[in-house]
Write a structure and sequence with these properties.
Elements (H helix, E strand, L loop, with lengths): L3 H13 L2 H8 L3 H15 L4 E4 L2 E4 L1 H31 L2 E6 L6 H12 L5 E6 L1 H9 L5 E6 L7 E16 L19 E4 L6 H13 L5 E6 L2 H7 L6 E6 L8 E4 L6 E10 L5 H10 L10
Parallel strand pairs: 3-4, 3-5, 7-8, 7-9
Antiparallel strand pairs: 1-2, 5-11, 6-9, 6-10, 6-11
GO molecular function: DNA binding; DNA-binding transcription factor activity
Organism: Nocardia otitidiscaviarum
Protein name: Hca operon transcriptional activator
Length: 298
C-alpha cells in the first residue's frame, strides 16, 4: 500500500518536474527519492514519470495519481488540523501572569475567559515580564499579562489591561517616613532599589525617567532585587528607598508614601501571538483592544 509519505514525495517530483529540486524541497537525498518513486510505481503496476535529460514528465497515470494524491494529502492535513483543534478545545487555557500583579488581576482574567467559555480550565504560569514575553512567543502560554511599557516582537500583539499607581516605599525609620506625602525633589541622593533591568527593561527605564522628570535625582542601587526581596531588605536599610503600590502599605517595618506631584504609573498589558487561531484568544483580544479589562465580565 502506498504511504502518505510516499504520496508527498510523488507530489513534490510531479510539481518540480525535477528529482534534485524535489529532493532539496523534501530535505532528502536524490537516490532516496528515486527509490521511493520506484516503490510507488511497483505498487500501482506502471510508470508514473518519464525521466529525460531535461527533467521529468508525467505519464497519463501519473497525472491521475497527482490529482488524487493532492486530495488525499489535503484531507489528511485537514484531519490533523481538526484533531489538534479538538485537543486544544479540551485542554486548559494557558494564562501567563507577571509576578506581583495586583490582587485579583488573575481572577479577573480567568472570569473574563470563563464568561466566553463556561467551565474552562485555566493553567496559570507566573514569571517576570521578560519571561512572559518568552512564554507567549514560544507558544508555551496562550495569553500573557506583563508590565509595560514593553517592546514586543512584531509577531506579537499587545493591549492595555489596567494601570497601577506607585508611591515611595521605605523603612519606617527612614527620615522621609515622617511625611504624609513626599516631594519628589526630596528623594534626590537616596539609593533607589529596583528590580533587575533585564526582567523588564522598558519599564525599568520608564520609572527612572518619570522620577527624574519630577526632579527626583535618585541614585540607582547596585542591588537588583525582586519585589519580595526588596520588602525584606528595606526595613534594614533606612538610607534606601523602593517603589511600590498602595498594596504594600501596612507591611511591617515599612512605610509607604504617595508623591505630592502625583503617582508614578505602570501599565499591565496582555500579549498574544498575532497569528493565533485560537477563537477564545481572538475573542479576548477583541475585548481588550477596544477598552481596558472589565471589572465584571458578562
Amino acid at each position: 500500500m502506498v504511504e502518505l509519505r510516499q504520496l508527498r514525495y510523488f507530489v513534490a517530483v510531479a510539481e518540480e518536474l525535477h528529482f534534485r529540486r524535489a529532493a532539496e524541497r523534501l530535505f532528502i537525498s536524490t537516490p532516496t527519492l528515486s527509490q521511493q518513486i520506484r516503490a510507488i510505481e511497483r505498487e500501482v503496476g506502471g510508470l508514473l514519470l518519464v525521466r529525460g535529460p531535461q527533467g521529468v514528465e508525467l505519464t497519463a497515470a501519473g497525472a491521475v495519481l497527482l490529482a488524487s494524491a493532492r486530495e488525499v494529502l489535503a484531507a489528511a492535513d485537514g484531519a490533523v488540523r481538526r484533531t489538534r483543534a479538538a485537543v486544544r478545545a479540551d485542554a486548559a487555557f494557558r494564562l501567563g501572569v507577571v509576578n506581583g500583579a495586583p490582587f485579583g488581576l488573575s481572577a479577573r482574567m480567568e472570569a473574563l475567559l470563563r464568561a466566553h467559555k463556561p467551565g474552562l480550565r485555566v493553567a496559570l504560569t507566573t514569571g517576570t515580564s521578560a519571561e512572559q514575553v518568552r512564554l507567549v512567543d514560544q507558544d508555551e502560554v496562550d495569553l500573557a499579562v506583563l508590565r509595560g511599557p514593553a517592546s514586543l516582537p512584531p509577531h506579537l500583539t499587545q493591549a492595555h489591561v489596567i494601570e497601577e499607581e506607585l508611591g515611595v516605599l521605605m523603612s519606617a525609620a527612614h527620615p522621609l517616613a515622617a511625611h504624609d506625602a513626599i516631594d519628589p525633589t526630596a528623594l534626590s541622593g537616596f539609593e533607589l532599589i529596583l528590580f533587575a533591568r533585564a526582567s523588564a527593561p522598558e519599564l525599568h527605564d520608564d520609572l527612572l525617567r518619570q522620577l527624574r522628570e519630577r526632579g527626583a535625582d535618585v541614585v540607582l542601587s547596585d542591588s537588583a532585587l525582586s519585589h519580595a526581596q526588596m520588602l525584606s531588605l528595606l526595613p534594614l536599610r533606612p538610607d534606601a528607598i523602593g517603589l511600590g503600590s498602595g498594596r504594600t502599605a501596612g507591611t511591617p517595618g515599612l512605610a509607604w508614601r504617595p508623591l505630592r506631584s502625583g503617582p508614578l504609573r505602570i501599565t499591565y498589558l496582555a500579549a498574544w501571538r498575532t497569528a493565533t487561531r485560537d477563537p477564545l484568544v481572538r475573542e479576548i483580544a477583541d475585548i481588550l483592544t477596544t477598552g481596558p479589562l472589565p471589572d465584571r465580565p458578562h
